[in-house]
Amino acid sequence: MKAGPSPEEIRRHNLGTLLRFVHLRGPASRATLAESLGLNRSTIMALTADLTAAGLVREELPRRPGRRAGRPSLVVRPESTRVYVLAFDVGVDRLAVARVGLGGTVLDRRSADLPRGAVDPNELVTALAGAARTLVRKAGRDAVCVGAGVAFPGIVRRADGRVVFGPNIKMTDVVLGDLLARRLGLGVPVTVGNDADLGALAEHERGAGVGCENLVYLHGDVGIGGGIIVGGRLLGGEEGFAGEIGHMIVNPGGRACACGSRGCLDSEVGERTLLDYAGRDQSSGQSGRDAVRAVVDAADRGDVAAREALHRVGTWLGFAVANLVNVFNPGMVIFGGTLRDVYLGSAAQVRSMVATGALAAPRDRVRLRTAELGDDATLTGAAEFAFAEVLADPLQVLARLREPEGTPVP
Amino acid sequence: MSLGTSFGRSVGASARPVLDLRGVDKSFGPVQVLHGVDLTAYPGEVTALVGDNGAGKTTLVKGIGGVHTFDSGEYLFEGRPVRPRTPRDAAGLGIEVVHQDLALCENLDIVENMFLGRERSNGIALDEAAMEEAARRTLTGLSVRSVGSVRRRVSELSGGQRQTVAIARAVLWDSRVVVLDEPAAALGVAQTQQVLELVRRLADKGLAVVLISHNMNDVFAVSDRIVALYLGRTAAQVRTADVTHRQVVELITSGRTGDLGLPA
Q: ipTM, 2 decimals?
């Protein structure tokens, strides 16, 4: 018979749960925490004391006096400026790096354009690390970096963060996390995830999908990415490659895709296709999210080619959503990145395809929504990914980071 | 959302309609504009009201909002029969209508507009601090960051920002039903998208939203149900998930499509 969890395990779990609550939902009074976490107030007090001693939260009187009589309950706030992670968002044509505080506040950020085409891993890491160092330098002396996460537009192995393949960024077989961790030299591991997977995570934890345990997130950049949350957890599959919705074949024998196949959602709905259909000349530098948004804008003003382009793209997108609804029975499908604009500009077509293509039972309750975090969904996801370790075992991670290199942790 | 009420956020719509019109008629002199119109709106859902020009959409909405009363038929609010005779009666029930012209005062700021005619006082003077705080909290609750200071004059705001203020004013009063008459009519695409997302958030917070729109993409992007009016009659009330663009267009233009709609 398996023994129950030890008191130490329970304490670690409770510390993580409390920290996670204030991280995701913001400052909360002890009374609220006790009620929401189902723990008694003396336990909350003890946990808060431990987290305060570790410098992860602080307690203070509420900013606005409550209306109730008596001594107000102290409010537990995450130490947003002192405890932070580095979040990296690698897009096909741009990079973003942010310093994100506990609680999810973006404290500082840098972004840069990236020339399209093949990217040298070393140059990429140099650019990312350089921007990160500037951000770290500007952080306070007492601030501590507790993790780093990268959102990458390609296929990433869960176990070691190896970038196996990046069809739109032409990078193959690179252990990006290790490379970047060494270059940063902050003593924190760098976790790497597929950008749409991390977008799904972010929308689930902080965006449109809060409270929805089964959702599909579709991300439009140059290509189309996907992330699937099942039972509140990101669906990884055998090696973490799951959720490549962009390479679901919706139009057999259709347009050639960068992955080598034909008729993938990516190639039928992606940026190049939409711009082609709308008759936009891409050689003259008209590409990227602004070009996609310009097509949606033109369609709204009555441009016939733009409307036709959105109609065609909306048809394939609708097929894909119908298939996803049938296979996963999600409570919500979220359109992020440039797909937010594409969806809003072609919703009649997308939903018509879903109405005729999806089974009535799973279609009945599915809600179609746009990403609440907008263009920051993937960056936010990278930050949440980076926070995962400290939220799972707050004191251990802090102790390790505060000890000088090489000292055994008690 | 108030912090800590729950870890997540409640979602989904309950089955009981908050607004239920059954067979309402309205004539102006010899002209009968509405013939036995039905419209049902549920909390947590966006109900799109569609129809050609002259189908009776605005007359219906004015009746809902108490601008005029219906001649006959049932008007049920949360299951009780009601008969609002003025917009103030309707507002008292929890029904707010945002008309196309928005009815904002250009020379007043955002807070003053949101509390216009319903100012809060602390006994002697207006309680400016409390009103400012409530206005700010409402805008934050709707994830609206685009208007800047709540003390900006409405004359300085863009079309989309004005629409946002008009919608925020409607939800400041714990409304249960918000009716929006063509909120995106005069807006550019970026602002339209923001207003659509705001409309969706209102419903996701549990309000019943009735949205009048001519744009089928907007209707399909945010609605849960569609009520199509044809020549003053309800051609069909359908779930958006069950119909196609073509069917809705046919309901609007000919009052029926396949088995749906008015008898031939």
A: 0.85
